[in-house]
Structures are given as structure tokens and as C-alpha cells.
Amino acid sequence: MNHEAQNYKQSGKVLVSRRLLVGLGKLLVFGLTLYYLRQAILEASSHSTFSFATFLKIWAQNGWALCLAAALLPVNWGVEASKWQFLSRKFEKITFLEAYRAVLVGLTLGFVTPNRMGDYAGRILTLHRKDRADAIGAILLGRLCQLFATVLMGSAALAYFVYKYYVPLASPVGISLGLAFLLVNGWALAFLFSFQWAIGLLERVPFLHRWLHYFAVIGTYSSGELRQTLFISGARYLVFVGQFIALLWAFGVHLSPEEYVWGVAGTFLIKSVVPSINALADIGMRELSAMHFFGLMGQDPLLVLGASLTLWTLNIALPSALGLIFVLPLKLSTPR
């Protein structure tokens, strides 16, 4: 009896310790999120193009463009939620609202982790099944499809800038670059549609065996399901582009439609392929690439900077803060 009582006492201590660690983890995420938001606000406020007076001036002149960009915010993450709801059907059926909540939780945790890796943990922790870590493959597939849309449009944007400002198209270098862009996109698309073959190759590597089951789910998606995932990713990419163009117009960056599209596509490509340490580093890369591409087209870098910082605030900062509402009550224990 004493032995049972001792075991019960020890299990109680373990439970208390686990709850304490979980609570401390949530507080850490909460504190880091608020810290990064504060640093971002201080960084943005140091630029005259992001001052409150400038914002009021822009609102008076082009308030409709700001409203359009803000109205596309829930659409942006709603499309991502729709994609997650579709991908998660392989292992658990969730509602659209549950998917939206998972996306916001992932966004908040990704806000404070390198290269937004917390997005994986955030979505996994909102699932109810016991072996919910198997969802890693589905999350990776969603990110790969989104990356493919970015690379496809970004490659066309790079070709536009290279051929217009640096290298003639009808030259050996120009032709080589064109073939390279085609090969990169063709390889990426072939990889997505033959992941089961890639899994077979990885199975031959002994030290990777313990990780394979996390990614094997990607090979279970049919060609039709992959096409639908790519379609949803493309739709979300268009929402991103629409938001950025609306904000550029609001800040006084006036270009032709194709210049808007290629400038935004080039910016998104550079931001996506360069790893980021945290949310603050993520800001700098997008702003530098945006000012470079639009600077080539003769636009004021400060106006581009203001539009890009506003885009980051709308799409990342505000939803990350909202996601804290769902992070704090989150249960980190594995469902039975």
C-alpha cells in the first residue's frame, strides 16, 4: 500500500512538473511574441514613411487601397486554412474553423522560431488524434506547394529583370538562364508528383528510417489532390500579390500592371528562399529585396519600404498577436 502511495505521489509530481513546463513554455511564446511585435513597431516607427502622420495622409488620399489590403487579410489566411483542411483529411477530418485556428496557432509559434518552424508544432498541437506527429508530412507538402507557386512566379520575375536590365535574351548567357529557370521549375514540379519514389530512395538510407514515417503521407496524395493543393496555393499567392499591389498604390508607387506583378513576385521569391532567424530578420529581407526590385524601376525606396512594412504588419504581426488567444489554452499533452 505504501508502495502504491509512493508511486501515486511520484506520478503527481511528474504531472505538476509537466504542467509547470507547459505553462512556462506558453508564457515564453507569449513574451517573445510581444517582444518581437514591440521591436518591429519601434523599427517601423523610426522610418518617416511609416509614421502616424504619413498614415493619415495616405488614408485621406488612398484609403480605399488600404481597406482593400486589410479586407484581403482574412481571405489570405482563410485560403491557407482551406488548404490545411484539405490536406489534413488524410489523417483527421477537421472543420474550416478548426483549420483556421490551427493556422493562427502555427503562425504565432512560427513568429518566434527560426524559418517559421513553429508552424509545424502549432498545427500538430491542435489535432486530436494520438499519432498527430504524422501530420508533419502534410504540413511540409502544403509549404512545398506554396513555395512552388512562389518559385514559378519568382523565376519569371527574375527573367524579366535580368533580360530588361542586365543580359539580352538573344545571347548565350540569356538562353542559358532561361533554360535554367525552366529546369528548376520542371524539377520542382516533378519532385512533387513523384514523392513516393523519393521515399523509396530514402528508405535505403539506414539512419533516415526513424524519420520516414513522418513524411510518407506525402506519397499517399494522388495527382488530383496535388493539383488541387497547387491550385489553392496559387490562389493564396494571388491574394498576397493583390495585397502588396494595393499597398504600393496607397503609398504612391504607380507602375504598369506587369511591373507591379514582376516586382512583387521577385520580392516574394528572395524572401522565401533565404532562411530567416526570426520575425525581425524576416522583415529586413523582404524590405531589402522590395527596395532593390522596385528601385530598378525608378521608384522611391522609402515608399516601397512603407508599403512592405505595412504588408508585414497586416499579414504577420496582427494575426500572430491574434493567435496568442488560441496558444494560451492549448493542451500540449498527447491525446489518448
Automatic annotation (TrEMBL):
> Subcellular location, in the record's words?
Cell membrane
Q: Which InterPro entries match?
A: L-PG_synthase/AglD
Instruction: Report the principal subcellular site.
Output: membrane
Q: Where are the transmembrane segments?
A: 20-37, 58-79, 138-163, 175-202, 237-255, 261-281, 302-328
The record's section on Pfam families has: LPG_synthase_TM (PF03706)
User: Topology in the membrane?
Assistant: Multi-pass membrane protein
Keywords, A to Z, come to: Cell membrane, Membrane, Transmembrane, Transmembrane helix
User: In its keyword annotation, does this UniProt entry include Zinc?
Assistant: no
Q: The organism sits in which domain of life?
A: Bacteria
- The answer to whether UniProt assigns keyword Kinase to this entry is no
What is the name of the protein in this document? Flippase-like domain-containing protein
Q: Which organism is it from?
A: Rufibacter sediminis
